[in-house]
Amino acid sequence: MNGRHLLVVDDDDRLRALLKEYLARAGFRVTVAADAAAAKRLLGLMAFDLLIVDVMMPGESGFDLTDWVRKRGATPVLILTARGEPTDRIEGLSRGADDYLGKPFEPQELILRIEAILRRAGERPGAGGKLTLGDCVFDLERGELWRGEDRVRLTEGEADLLRALALQPNAPVDRLELARDTADPSGRAVDVHVTRLRRKIEPDPRTPRYLTTVRGVGYMLIPD
After folding, report:
1. What is the structure's pLDDT at 2?
2. CA 144 distance to own-chain centroid
3. 48 has which bridge partners?
4. Which fold has domain 130-221?
């Protein structure tokens, strides 16, 4: 799993579900939204590595959403739409999209275009590095937690969860997305891992400072 988090914005329920399934199989974490308004709410709660945006949606168009995203920062946008005329492509790219792919499309081409955009965007900050959590240090590459010279024992599930959160520091991560690769998709296993991790990294697990709960979303890791 590469840990990259994608937001798919499309009002077609069937295509949205197919994209989520295919991209998840390719190793991405995927969140979906049915329109621009829902996408904006999610963007206010979570960090994404790339957006895949349809143009023709109820309410704001994908072009308008791309404008809004570009004014907020540098999150890459791939426009995926049935509007494949050269004038549409020019408008999408002029609005700030990083790439433009017409429907119907080959799934493998979509993956290749996503990977190319992410390469251009650069490596995720902190990937392969270390995060400080009070008197603990988490090594993302090794999946190891240390307190001074002593290694803190983590189960495989705890290490995977901590790494997933560490790849998006200071950003809420959806609880069910964290649960996707566990044997318990309900998220209960994630909650158990969080409780155990807090006992290992928090000075006071009852009032967590580093591994916090984001109500209605999931969890967030806040390193020093």
Report:
1. 57
2. 22
3. none
4. Arc Repressor Mutant, subunit A (1.10.10)
